[in-house]
Amino acid sequence: MLKNIPKILSPELLKALCEMGHSDRLIISDGNFPCESIGKNSIVIRCDGHGTCEILDAILKIFPLDTYTEKSVNLMEVMKDDNIKTPIWKEYEKIVKKYDNRGKKTIGQIERFQFYKEAKDAYLIIATGEEALYANIMLQKGVVVE
């Protein structure tokens, strides 16, 4: 057991997060994301039974966001013809703001198929059981300065 590490972060997940370097990206995916096919060149860690918000909150407690890029957090943009609401994005904003003083300003959106393309280069994909649609979120790792 370790102190001050969120219990939701498994040893396998902690190892992968620790191995990531500056500018490496990770995806926290919803339950519909094709994590195994997209993540053929990535580490894929399953966190079924957990939602994206609780995983995001736990990760941001220990994971620095990149300050050398304007948008170190990116969401999968809703397709033009999809009439889908994304209330989970407001939750993401609150969580990001809690750990990064840029808050909403560091959150961007990437068109769906471009998001898939960029996700293929992610170091890590965390597959959750999140049921919200368009709940995929990409984080770019920064530098620890303390």
Description:
- With 146 residues, this protein is an alpha/beta fold.
- It has one domain: RbsD-like domain (RbsD-like fold, 3-Layer(aba) Sandwich), CATH 3.40.1650.10.
- Helix content is 29%, strand content 18%.
- It is built from 5 helices and 6 strands; from the N terminus they run αβαβαβαβαββ.
- It has a 6-stranded mixed sheet with strand order 2-5-1-6-3-4.
- α3 runs parallel beside α4.
- The radius of gyration is 14 Å and the shape is globular.
- The two termini are 24 Å apart.
Main sheet record: 6 strands, mixed
* Count of beta strands: 6
Q: Which quaternary structure do these chains form? A: single chain
Q: What is the helical fraction, as a range of percent?
A: 25-40%
Give the strand order of the largest sheet, numbering strands 1, 2, ... along the chain: 2-5-1-6-3-4
Query: Helix-strand pattern, N to C?
Result: HEHEHEHEHEE
Structurally, how many domains make up the residues? 1
* Annotated CATH homologous superfamily: RbsD-like domain
Structural class: alpha/beta
Gyration radius (Cα, Å) is 14 Å
- On the 0 to 100 scale, the average pLDDT is 96
Keywords: Isomerase
Catalytic activity: beta-D-ribopyranose = beta-D-ribofuranose; alpha-L-fucose = beta-L-fucose
Enzyme class: isomerase
GO molecular function: L-fucose mutarotase activity
Main traits of this protein?
146 residues; alpha/beta; RbsD-like fold; six-stranded mixed sheet; 5 helices; 6 strands; 29% helix; 18% strand; globular; RbsD-like_sf
